[in-house]
Amino acid sequence: MNAVLEIEDLRIGFGPLEAVRGIDLVVERGQTHCLVGESGCGKSVSALSVLRLLPKRARFSAARLAFEGNDIAGLGERGMARLRGDRMAMIFQEPMTSLNPAYTIGSQMIEVLRRHRGASRAAAVDRCIAMLERVGVTAPAMRLGQFPHQLSGGLRQRVMIATALLCEPALLIADEPTTALDVTVQAQFLRLLADIQRQMGLAVLLITHDLGVVARVADRVSVMYAGRIVEHGATGAVFAAPRHPYTRGLLASIPVPGKIPPGGRLGSIPGIVPRIGAGFAGCAFRARCAVAMPACAAPVPEHRLADGHRFACHLGPDGAWSGA
Amino acid sequence: MIRFIVRSLLLAMLVCLTVLIVSFALTRLSGNLAINLAGPDASAASIAKIQHELGLDRPLPVQFAAWADRALHGDFGNSYLYHQSVSSLIASHLKVTLQLGAIAIGMAIIIAVPLGILAALHEGTWIDTACGLVALIGQAVPSFWLGLMLILWFGIDLRWLPIAGLATWKGYILPSFVLSFVAIPVMLRLTRGGMVDALRADYVRTARAKGLSRASIVLKHAFRNAAMPVVAVSAVQLGFILGGSVVTEVVFNVRGVGYLAWESIGKGDFPVVQAVVLLFAVTFVGLTFLADLIGAMLDPRVRG
Ligand SMILES: Nc1ncnc2c1ncn2[C@@H]1O[C@H](COP(=O)(O)OP(=O)(O)OP(=O)(O)O)[C@@H](O)[C@H]1O
Ligand SMILES: [Mg+2]
To answer: What's the whole-model pTM score?
Structure first.
């Protein structure tokens, strides 16, 4: 096993809200792990907590948070700042606002190399040009002198990923990187991400609520619901035989079964994600679940299948009441 | 960008024309000057004579046209009090006012900007509240009172600083400090507000995700964006400071344009009043135009 990121029992809260309620997640070298779920289920805050970029008022705890084998849960702000942008990088959903409007692309890329590598200006410029070329940006030298508003959305997202990759990180976290892009640009960007991931042996944690994206790029998928991972497994296994009623609902809500149109969104299951406070017990999905029973208010058992496939439901792998 | 400049310039000129008309009208509406000049015991004949000499018996539009034409050439006539040309009178008073104004705006920036950044970094804590209190007090306390208190304290009790005049560099400290308080509240609030927004912005999150130092995140990424409106507004604030010089120069007995304005208003020296009002107004309009220009220059999206 070659785990780059290992998370155990991660919990995040905001005031009375329990946004993330104990998730386990492993991302391995050379692997794309997709975190998928409806809006508000806690995907972004989970990702931000890995880089320790949560807002100050957030409650955060984890039994284990290991990066490249080292526990980083207790690492201070200075230690984290050394890792960020160097060994672990993150790109965000909003390419329009994630770049600073006041500085050129060059300024915003070069500062990363100057910070983490102590590179000379000239060396940094060369490296930035090479990296922009690598992610398919045309006329890279000219781009360095341009401001963000002079670039299209797709181009900005390429600049973001080039910046993220400058120091050859071990882990790239991408929070819905294609949501704001139009469909053809989305497809190009995903191809690029897959290429780079293979060539650099990156571990990628990709957040999305687009099952089409999951089907195309994920090695493993974690389905998140109301702050918990309700099902996890190899993408093929989960798509072929989803075990959790929520995962089934998600897959069934796609028009043509087995064939996912690009841009296929979640959220066609009736009802909304509940906001969960302290003292909540049982399965959070039961209010929307077609096969819910009164007993679903009891603590949920977790079932483990072959190849790390696991899910949390009162119904066992055979579909029978597991009577936990 | 060119279109933007032309538009701002046209607007500024329109405002100047309005000011020209208003400043002309003001002095004609505020009592009969000839009676004031002639004194309480003057005969009707001598009043009429003075009226004719000053051209006050002609129709108003004619008076205005003649006056505006001369004003545009820098000729405001002679002061009734000093018996010298208004323009040379103002020129001799302008230097200290500009000096004090420049020092004051510098002081305001040095005091307000760091406090604003500090407040934003500690949003919602007692530090933020304390900075807000500074702004509130700065706004609530009148300049003349602050000036008098400082004179009492530093000038009379402690004897550290002169109580009036600008004989040595020490004389500049109190008046420019009092003047800077005209601008501090607005600049402090603007800096704080801009920084609070900037620190929440996505690009600051990106800067943090890149592992940049705290100094770089706060000063390079956040402050650069928060500073745009602050820089622009400090030009406008300089205009307010010049306006504030009337009170401050009187309190500190500084013979600048503000003092001249106060004196000429009190004594009905209306060519001087007109010229000073016009000067202040045109300066203010000019500074506002400058603020727009600086704002545009600093923002790459407008600069194009
Ligand atoms: N700064 C914050 N303050 C308070 N609550 C927050 C904050 N950030 C997130 N939350 C809450 O935490 C929960 C999880 O939010 P998160 O942003 O992780 O959702 P998400 O799964 O990324 O959704 P989306 O698909 O909309 O991005 C939500 O209920 C949200 O309201
Ligand atoms: Mg999100």
So the answer is: 0.83
What are the C-alpha distances in Å from B289 to residues B9, B187, B191? Answer: 7, 18, 21
pLDDT in tens, A131-175: 999 898 999 999 999 999 999 988 999 999 999 999 999 999 999
Ligand 1 atom with the smallest distance to the CA of A207 is 22
Domain B87-303: CATH architecture, name and number where available: Orthogonal Bundle (1.10)
- The verdict on a CB contact (< 8 Å) between A101 and B207 is no
Query: Do A231 and A220 touch, CB atoms closer than 8 A?
Result: no
Residue of A nearest to B228 (CA): A102
With a CB cutoff of 8 Å and minimum separation 6, the contacts of B25 are none
Residue of B3, B60, B57 lying closest to B29 (CA atoms):
B60
Q: What is the residue type of B73?
A: H
Cross-strand bridge partners of residue A59: A13
- Residues B40 and B275 sit within 8 Å (Cβ to Cβ): no
Q: Quickly count: other Cβ atoms within 10 Å of residue A2's Cβ.
A: 11
> Rounded CA gap, B269 and B104, in Å?
29
Distance CA A121, CA B42 (A): 82
Number of H helices, E strands in chain B: 14, 0
Burial class (CB in 10 A: 0-12, 13-18, 19+), B167: exposed
CA distance A235 to A205: 14
Does B205 contact chain A (CB < 8 Å)? yes
Indicate which atom in ligand 1 lies nearest the CA of residue A227. 14
Decide whether any atom of ligand 1 lies within 6 Å of the A14 Cβ: yes
- As a whole number of Å, the CA-based R_g of chain A is 20
Indicate which of A48, A52, A86, A100 best probes the interface with B, i.e. most B CBs within 10 Å of its own CB.
A100
Residue A7 bridge partners (DSSP):
A25, A65
Domain with CATH 1.10.3720.10 in chain B: 87-303
pLDDT in tens, B105-137: 999 999 999 999 999 999 999 999 999 999 999
Radius of gyration of chain B (CA): 24
Question: Domain A3-87+167-312 carries which CATH code?
Answer: 3.40.50.300
Q: Domain map of chain A by residue range?
A: 3-87+167-312
Out of A44, A49, A175, A208, mutate this one to test ligand 1's pocket (max ligand atoms within 8 Å of CB): namely: A44
Strands A70-71 and A17-28: unpaired
* Cross-strand bridge partners of residue A233: A221
Enter the tokens of residue B98. 């500009």
Residue closest via CA to ligand 1's atom 4 equals: A14
CA distance A285 to A130: 48
Residues A226/A41, Cβ–Cβ less than 8 Å? yes
Give the model's confidence band at B33: pLDDT under 50 very low, under 70 low, under 90 confident, else very high.
low
Q: Is B222 helix (H, G, I), strand (E, B) or coil?
A: helix
| Residue A205 CA neighbour count, 13 Å, CB half | 30
Spatial contact of B120 and B159, defined as CB atoms under 8 Å apart? no
